[in-house]
Amino acid sequence: MGEELEKVKKEAAQIIEDSQKLPRLVVFDLDCTFWPFYCECCYEDEMPYLYPHAMGILQALKDKGIDVAIASRSPTPDIAKTFLDKLGIQSMFVAQEIYSSWTHKTDHFQRIHRKTGVPFSSMLFFDDEDRNIQAITKMGVTSILVHRGVTLGALRQGLKKFAEKSSSSWT
User: Fold this and answer.
1) How many whole angstroms separate alpha carbon 34 and alpha carbon 30?
2) How are beta strands 123-127 and 25-28 bridged, if at all?
3) How do residues 30-44 score in pLDDT, each as one tens digit?
4) Can you tell me the mean pLDDT for 127-135?
5) Number of C-beta neighbours around residue 12 at 10 A
6) How far apart are CA 94 and CA 92, in angstroms?
7) Of 20, 24, 87, 144, which has the fewest beta carbons less than 10 angstroms from its beta carbon?
8) Given its phi and psi angles, is residue 71 left (phi above 0), alpha (psi -120 to 50 degrees) or beta?
9) What are the residue numbers of the active site?
10) Domain that holds residue 78
11) Number of domains into which the chain is organized
12) What is the chain's percent helix, strand, coil content, to nearest 5?
């Protein structure tokens, strides 16, 4: 397990280093993006687990000085926060917006922006729901739809899209 984590972390670090322009903040959804389940289908006493690449990506971002945050519409924020605690990663996030909402996460991002001061154009977002991706993209956030959790491929795609969007806004 530790060897695979180090391999993913090293590859994620290389992807980050190879990127021409980096976001100041990377925001993750939780359910079916960071971990392969819905919190509302779980109990607090269960032991959570992440998608295989999630921890390595998270650690590589932090090592490179890129802040990370959470935007989740989970109706069970207590379970989500307990799981983050059990995984030992709750303190890694500069903002945790975890609450049920009908706004496709626009309120979540307004709060993240207010807490961090990071402009939407300097954020990268990963989520498994197209409606959230569409709504947040309209706010100016580079957004990537994931299908089976956040992966090295999704990170590469996100950083490439972020760099392209950043360079095109200067021309």
Assistant:
1) 5
2) parallel
3) 999 999 999 999 999
4) 96
5) 24
6) 7
7) 20
8) beta
9) 29, 31
10) 1-168
11) 1
12) 50, 15, 35
